[in-house]
Specification:
Order of helices and strands: HHEEHEEEEEEEHHEEHEHHHHH
Strand content: 15-25%
Structural class: alpha+beta
Distance between the termini: 22 Å
Largest sheet: 10 strands, mixed
Low-confidence stretches: none
Number of domains: 2
Helix content: 40-55%
Mean pLDDT: 82
Radius of gyration: 30 Å
Amino acid sequence: MIDLAYRDIRHSATKFVVTALGVGMLFGIVLLMIGVYRGLIEDARSLCDDVGADLWVVQDNTLGPFGESSRIHSDLEQTLHSIEGIKEISALTLYSTQLPYNGQDLRVFLVGYDPFGSIVPIKDEKLIRGRVIERDRYEMVVSSALGVDLDSKIVMANDEYKVVGIVTSSVSSGGDPLVYVSLKDSQKIQFAYTNETIRNDRARGVLKQDTNIVNAVVATLREGYDDRVVADDIAKWKHLSVYTNEEQLEILLKNVVEKSARQIGLFTAILILVSTVIIGLIIYTMTLEKMKSIAIMKLVGIANYHIIKMIVKETLILGGIAFVCGSIFANLTYKNFPKKMVLELQDASMLFVVILVASVLASLIGVHKVLGANAQSAIGG
């Protein structure tokens, strides 16, 4: 029995491969879009996971530093030590700012923490060069994504900071490279005012700006204590909003990633639909080219089932080759994009199943044409 799929691949190998490469590029873009989404999730979780806190204490009736502005007094750290169940506690500042370097203003996410405290958001496994902050003034650790060299000098708020360490390409949920400084330095940078502003404030009766402010106080709990119970206790007596780490992650993902996820999902669905239509049109064209042969096969008594099986087989081969080409394309290019992309095997496996289903659906166009073929046309020419 003539195998039309094998025949097309053998006699039109160049056309078949080029077609598969074109469709594969679309599937590769689909994988990259999924990788963008995975990267957004990983970036969003990164800082929360590095802090490793059980509780996030923030300004009352706010969602915390990842959802909206939160400002509380740093001396709250000492007050919360008396809460039963608290093991370790530390104040943090987290905000976006501009970092001047080589004549450019680089957008960064500044993390201020107590370098002598018990909670340090810089993990040893992420430190690729240099060291962590060991002084409470004028040292910083930067993300490698920033492109700043070790031992560089950077001026911020009229003070010079030395880059003492570089961590892996860590970024905030918004994609800004992370920069770590001491809590004292971050408060000075955050509340730095020009001389004109200070004179204007004094004229308005504002004698001194309160810089004893942080964006969150984080805490870890002793073994055996329920994070939700301790959070409710703090919120009740201290009139603050308190979130568990999972709740803070949920807020972060909902406020930062959700809309991007919907957009990426819609774009991915459109690409898959377009790919399905293209495969369908290609199979339809190939089927038209074989109508004479199909009519002869019908004339000699070959059942429609066998002919349809050949068409579907050809479509699946095309989809399979396109998937392989797309996977190779995605894995060769994803590291060249400015934002993090995460390619996972389970996503590729799910896409492969989707491609198989889409290929079968696309083959229905060719199958419809086959069913309508007239065996007598093989005699009529």
